[in-house]
Amino acid sequence: xxxxxxxxxxxxxxxxxxxxxxxxxxxxxxxxxxxxxxxxxxxxxxxxxxxxxxxxxxxxxxxxxxxxxxxxxxxxxxxxxxxxxxxxxxxxxxxxxxxxxxxxxxxxxxxxxxxxxxxxxxxxxxxxxxxxxxxxxxxxxxxxxxxxxxxxxxxxxxxxxxxxxxxxxxxxxxxxxxxxxxxxxxxxxxxxxxxxxxxxxxxxxxxxxxxxxxxxxxxxxxxxxxxxxxxxxxxxxxxxxxxxxxxxxxxxxxxxxxxxxxxxxxxxxxxxxxxxxxxxxxxxxxxxxxxxxxxxxxxxxxxxxxxxx
Amino acid sequence: xxxxxxxxxxxxxxxxxxxxxxxxxxxxxxxxxxxxxxxxxxx
Lengths: 309, 43
Description:
heterodimer; A: mainly alpha; Alpha-Beta Plaits; two-stranded antiparallel ribbon; globular; B: mainly alpha; 3 helices
């Protein structure tokens, strides 16, 4: 039977690609919804997409700052405000339950193959991508026309290659004359990411996704948090074994990397992990940094050091 | 520190409202409703 999370992912994937008229009109949707940012990564140049991509819109606004000034600033304000609201209300619930590209990666991970865990150091690649390709280069590397480029979309975004590049080329053969080196790079990179997603759970989210990183910053201060009741914990380690991202639970329960799949919450035999919807930020206790507060937690820390992870 | 979330919420809503009132929606719509050759790798 399909789980609630899979159902939600499927629903939002269909919603984010609901413009089926594009299949015979062979054109982008141009209605009012296109000005609304969808929470997840879904390229707005995909003919099926009725919404805008927040990451693409953010880069477009930054890239137009010098040329259009106030107009671009208002767009920047609108997009940043939207991202902040999504971040605050949902955090990385978006990644686990809404993002269509997340679902795509999870389907790839189902392909039988040896499974590995992404080295922790690679998680920091997305910080570099966010800082340089999403924020700095589009605003600072400006051409003679006064416009910058959307560097993350241009060089990295595999969702754009898959949903916009390949799909548009299939629908509109006249675009094929524009294929040059950049397109071959993007297709090769998409292939590499897809291959890595078969071996590593959500490789793109863990290593490359700047949008997930922004949402991750709010896992601790946003409305949706997880709460760990340390006093009832049996220290069985099931939560850590079942976590698909190999997170250290409870230390990283509200950390940047948790995509809120809630596997730990469901698997816990004593239900010590709970959903906490509140306007107060997660305290140290919630994130499990409590080794000095109680003997039980000290025991938990000791167990973790000796564990197989 | 406990007011962090409320501050984020108000800042987010403020930015969103200001952006909407000053044409931010139209800018995003105009970009999203036209083919982005960079996104497709066709530049």
